[in-house]
Design brief:
The protein has 231 residues and is an all-beta fold. The protein has one helix spanning 3-7; strands spanning 27-47, 54-66, 70-78, 81-88, 92-102, 106-110, 113-120, 124-142, 145-164, 167-188, 191-202, 208-219.
Length: 231
């Protein structure tokens, strides 16, 4: 089963943005410094040297490590629609389409997207496609600060071959529940800092993966001038 190793292939659900879309004809950028972690379960097998009998015992495993940076470009299409192109961790590519029908103190958007990468080694080659379907909920206490919550689901599609012991395997996929939390601090109309964490839980078994990163956003960022107090 390849699911564990595929999850270590770094699904990257973080957006480093708010529900608001980039203005039509404008472009914004994001560079993020990121890390990846997991909490899972493995099975230890003990062999009795006297009888040869085996016993199994589950054990919790976890890990955390930095990853390569990611880059995102967003282009505004209409007043409530923009598109994003991503290079995740210098190892996979992605695209998303954000629709933002509600703006104000409370913002709402849907942001479906996909992420693809290819893994290869001496005895394996695997294609992985993640279909991301988050809802973006934003609260704007001030024109310089937003809180963003991103619940949703991700579906993993994986196919490939593992060569060993004269056998070829396998196809693995699965549904993951996801939930994210981010905070955006806008220091000017064209620069913002956006820390974000997203956790993902497979429905096929135990285990949790999470991505944490800090996005540096610049360019024609979405406007929050509607929240400013009138002079």
């Amino acid at each position: 089963m390849l699911v564990g190793s595929l999850l270590c292939g770094c699904p990257n659900p973080n957006s480093y943005g708010t529900p608001r879309t980039v203005a039509p004809g404008k472009i914004a950028h994001s560079v993020s410094l990121e890390s990846y972690g997991f909490i899972g379960e493995t099975t230890d097998v003990d062999v009795d040297p006297n009888t040869g009998a085996t016993t199994t015992k589950p054990r919790t495993v976890s890990g955390f490590a930095p990853t390569f940076p990611s880059y995102q470009l967003r282009a505004g299409l209409t007043d409530m629609l923009d598109i994003g192109a991503h290079v995740h961790n210098l190892s996979s590519v992605g695209v998303d389409l954000k629709v933002n029908p509600v703006r104000g103190i409370f913002d709402f958007a849907v942001d479906p997207g996909l992420q693809y990468f290819f893994l290869t080694s001496n005895d394996a080659s695997v294609h992985v496609l993640y279909l991301h379907a988050p809802v973006m909920l934003g609260v704007n206490p001030a024109d310089w600060f937003s809180i963003v919550v991103t619940p949703g689901v991700t579906y993993a599609l994986a196919s490939g071959d593992v060569v060993g012991d004269d056998e070829a395997a396998s196809v693995a996929d699965g549904l993951l529940l996801r939930g994210g939390l981010g905070f955006q601090f806008r220091t000017s109309d064209s620069f913002a800092i956006h820390p974000e964490i997203t956790m993902m839980k497979s429905l096929d078994g135990p285990g949790l993966v999470y991505n944490f990163g800090i996005g540096l956003n610049f360019g024609a960022l979405p406007s929050y001038k509607d929240l400013q107090e009138p002079m």
